[in-house]
Amino acid sequence: MSWALLVVAGLLEVAWASVLPSTEGLTRPAPTAAFVLLLAASMYGLARATETIPIGTGYAVWVGIGALGTAVVGILRGDPASPTRLLCLGLIVAGVVGLRLTGPH
Questions:
Q1: What span, in angstroms and rounded, lies between the C-alpha atoms of 5 and 72?
Q2: Nearest Cα residue to 75 out of 32, 28, 14
Q3: What pLDDT digit, counting tens, does each position of 12-43 carry?
Q4: Distance (Å, whole) CA 39 – CA 46
Q5: CA distance 77 to 39
Q6: How many CB atoms lie within 10 A of CB 2?
Q7: Is the Cβ–Cβ distance between 24 and 76 less than 8 Å?
Q8: pLDDT, tens digit, for every residue of 48-105?
Q9: Which strand (E) or helix (H) includes residue 41?
Q10: From CA 50, how far away is CA 4, in angstroms rounded?
Q11: What is the CA radius of gyration of the chain?
Q12: How is the chain split into domains, by residue range?
């Protein structure tokens, strides 16, 4: 259950990071409120998941999901998708999968 919660928390990280530009420096109330709620939910999920998953593993997986997901959102919005960038994203996936396979089950 903790791993599923960690994945959801990572996806919420993607959501808050994706909303952040629309806050225009936290000056727009509605996007800022969405950002804060998504951020809080993501942190709560990370905190709960790391009650049973070691913090180093949990945090690394959470950041990996967030980094990968946010990079994919950026690519879908026009960021460059060069072979080297895609390879680096693949390395993030490999790291997250490796942590999951070698961590507590």
A1: 21
A2: 14
A3: 999 999 999 999 999 999 999 999 999 999 99
A4: 11
A5: 21
A6: 15
A7: no
A8: 999 999 999 999 999 999 999 999 999 999 999 999 999 999 999 999 889 888 866 6
A9: helix 29-49
A10: 12
A11: 15
A12: 2-102
Dig out the tokens for 8 from the structure. 């959801």
Which tokens hold the place of 48? 């709960």
Q: Residue 104: which of 33, 40, 70, 53 has the closest Cα?
A: 53
Residue matched to tokens 């809080």? 40
Residue recorded with tokens 């993501």: 42
- What would the DSSP string read from start to end of 61-91? HHHHHHHHHHHHHHHHTT----HHHHHHHHH
CA torsion angle for 44, 48, 53, 58 (degrees, to 10)? 0
Q: Which residue type is seen at 25? A: G
pTM of the model as a whole:
0.88
Task: Please report, for residues 72, 89, 101, the alpha-carbon distance to residue 86 in angstroms, rounded to integers and kept in the order given.
Answer: 9, 5, 22
Task: Match 């919005």 to its residue by tokens.
Answer: 77
Look at the block and give the residue holding tokens 């680096």: 88
